Amino acid sequence: MKKILLCIAIFSTIYISAQAVIVEEKYEDRNEPITFQYLPNSKKIVVYKGSPISMSYSYITTNALSFDVNGKKTVLFENEKLMSPTFSVTENTYKANDATQIKKANYKFFQDKNVFPVNYDTLEDLNTHYFGRYDYNSVLCAVENRSSEMFFDASFNDSHDFGFTNQKQKGTINFEKDDIYLESIEITSNARKRFKLEKPNLSLLKGDAFAEQDYKTSFICKLNGNENFDIITKSVSADFQTTILYKTTYDFVGKKINEISLTLKLNNKFFIASDNSGGPKGFVSADENPGNPFTAAAKGLGTLSVNNYYEDKKTGDIFCLRSF
Description:
Elements: E1 3-11, E2 19-27, E3 32-39, E4 44-52, E5 59-67, E6 73-77, E7 82-87, E8 93-98, E9 107-111, E10 114-118, H1 120-123, E11 134-135, E12 138-139, E13 160-165, E14 181-186, E15 192-196, E16 220-224, E17 228-236, E18 242-250, E19 256-265, E20 281-285, E21 297-301, E22 307-311, E23 318-322
Antiparallel strand pairs: 1-2, 3-4, 4-5, 5-6, 7-8, 8-9, 9-10, 11-12, 13-14, 14-15, 16-17, 17-18, 18-19, 20-21, 22-23
């Protein structure tokens, strides 16, 4: 039996709660809306349809539609079997797992109605989690151990998928001791290259003048479309009243292009780490029963979570979100 269930609405202004339905979509069993993604640059909503996988929290995605602010519908794909379709930061390319095989599933990149398959082994050790997720131009968090029902990391643009490894081509990077390499895989050919980066200055992040932290000094990364990428590091002073955000821009062969710093100071108040999506979250078992996998977990946040920022690409202005 068909149902009219999906309604996409827009607010007339951010101050008025009145809303208007701009589209109504019919769907059937086994072809139901399962998730959506907002594309901030094109201001579109992408609705994914499909069906749940028995005995799991995952879904098979079979169809995808996009809607603009006027309700105009565009069919992105139909009659596919995919998992975790995710748009790139450019919003021109999306990546998905080929769900015709669940174990060691290959990847597909969709672009301008072209499909580029990428072998599972090619991306298996790419280590994309430093890029976080793409949502409102923000790194939501650097998530390790991605599960199959989650969106992919924001590590790819219209030509390449990227990751970071150390000198041994391993994904576990000790920022203080290891060299850092950019791993680059061309989507159309599957060709892989790696480039050594000039690391940010560690003396600006660690020492007697800085706050001690339980988590090791690290970094996050943001892709700037098809142009370049930023590595972000942060420091907090020993008195917790000054924090500096460093944004170092590189090209895609690892050459440093530019570096800026943003200093924030407080008087009679103190900066604290918060769940602002500015850095990775660590989860550990509660002390009372650490061996029980069902025990509530404590969330750990490091220096990267002392703030987060949004950069207006049109003006170059940077807006910081912080807690104190």
